[in-house]
């Protein structure tokens, strides 16, 4: 790929990030002094944190954990009724969070940040940042320069080094306490097999010659799936050793994906587009969502129902595998960037207006 074209697309990345709520980098592109400051400055405590822009939400056992701008991490132990701020060592915007159990979790964000917690989100430690990520990419690219395609990967790595450590991570997936991936802009993907103590650049394992942005990663059955910019859709059937491109049903960007308990796959993104597959991505059925707003989040409810949420705050409930939807508006009245079903069955969401304890799915026609 022409490396200059990657960086010419920076404006398009910024626009796409805005659609999924990741527009909140605390620094201008390439502002090195500010970059160093936010990587070293702890998130400031503020009573306004629950009303801050929040981009990610996860369950840690019975606890809810939300992440967002300026390194804010919020914890709720009462199903989203009240929230308190956690201690975080950086003040860069965080875009996504995942827990594998009640104690162990990870969050990712701008400037290549990866954070880890071992106490359910009370405190966090930085495991990776953009400077270290780029250094690792250059090191591996130099080592593999004589392999097929090695010269191109080395050129891209060196351009990333010259451009600076400001590339965001946008999603993550951990299968357990040891094994996980973080993904982001310009085909960034890193893998760990030791809980994040060390990271391996994984770009050469991904069939993405245009260096398109990676927006989502999830496991569906025994497969790993990646979605991204311009309809990018990739699957690994060998435990992440390689990711091959699948024929995409849509040319617009996908911002997320969901694997159901019975092995179905849902991908979703721009202009209300969502697609359903029962055969591991071999074929697709378009879901008639009835909206044109960007879909930002998807959730399988306890009873097996499907819930999609748009950036405009529209909630779409389905109990027939997406063949029909019951549309409601989020009680918060604002955008929805991420959502979770709390331990009591209620629906919690986060977005540009902060946290919201939304409507109880059981009170909306749900069992």
From TrEMBL:
Keyword Nucleotidyltransferase: yes or no?
Answer: no
Secretion signal, residue range per the UniProt entry: 1-33
| InterPro entries in the cross-refs | PSII_CF48-like_dom, WD40/YVTN_repeat-like_dom_sf
Report the residue ranges that make up the Photosynthesis system II assembly factor Ycf48/Hcf136-like domain in this protein. Answer: 81-127, 167-246
Q: Which keywords describe this protein according to UniProt?
A: Photosynthesis, Photosystem II, Signal
Pfam families referenced in this protein's UniProt entry, alphabetically: PSII_BNR (PF14870)
Q: What is this protein called?
A: YCF48-related protein
């Amino acid at each position: 790929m022409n490396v200059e074209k990657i960086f010419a697309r920076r404006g398009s990345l910024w626009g796409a990030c805005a659609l999924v709520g990741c527009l909140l980098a605390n620094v201008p592109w390439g502002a090195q002094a500010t970059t160093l400051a936010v990587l070293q400055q702890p998130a400031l405590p503020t009573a306004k944190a629950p009303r801050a822009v929040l981009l990610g939400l996860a369950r840690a056992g019975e606890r809810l954990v939300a992440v967002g701008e300026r390194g804010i991490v919020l914890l709720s132990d009462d199903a989203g009724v009240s929230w308190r701020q956690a201690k975080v060592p950086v003040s860069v915007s965080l875009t996504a969070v995942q827990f594998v159990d009640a104690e162990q979790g990870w969050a990712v964000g701008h400037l290549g940040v990866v954070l880890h917690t071992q106490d359910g989100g009370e405190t966090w430690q930085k495991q990776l940042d953009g400077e270290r990520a780029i250094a690792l990419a250059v090191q591996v690219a130099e080592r593999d320069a004589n392999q097929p395609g090695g010269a191109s990967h080395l050129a891209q790595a060196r351009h990333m080094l010259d451009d600076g450590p400001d590339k965001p991570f946008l999603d993550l997936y951990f299968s357990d306490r040891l094994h996980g991936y973080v993904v982001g802009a310009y085909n960034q993907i890193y893998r760990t097999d030791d809980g994040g103590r060390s990271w391996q650049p994984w770009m050469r394992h991904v069939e993405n010659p245009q260096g398109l942005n990676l927006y989502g990663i999830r496991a569906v059955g025994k497969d790993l799936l990646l979605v991204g910019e311009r309809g990018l859709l990739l699957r690994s059937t060998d435990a992440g050793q390689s990711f091959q491109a699948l024929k995409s049903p849509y040319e617009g960007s996908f911002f997320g994906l969901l694997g159901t308990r019975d092995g179905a796959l849902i991908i979703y993104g721009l202009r209300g587009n969502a697609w359903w597959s029962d055969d591991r991505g071999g074929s697709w059925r378009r879901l008639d969502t009835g909206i044109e707003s960007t879909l930002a989040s998807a959730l399988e409810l306890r009873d097996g129902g499907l819930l999609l949420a748009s950036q405009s705050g529209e909630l779409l409930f389905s109990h027939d595998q997406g063949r029909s939807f019951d549309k409601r508006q989020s009680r918060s009245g604002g955008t929805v960037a991420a959502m979770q079903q709390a331990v009591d069955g209620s629906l919690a969401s986060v977005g540009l207006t902060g946290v919201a304890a939304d409507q109880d799915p059981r009170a909306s026609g749900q069992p």
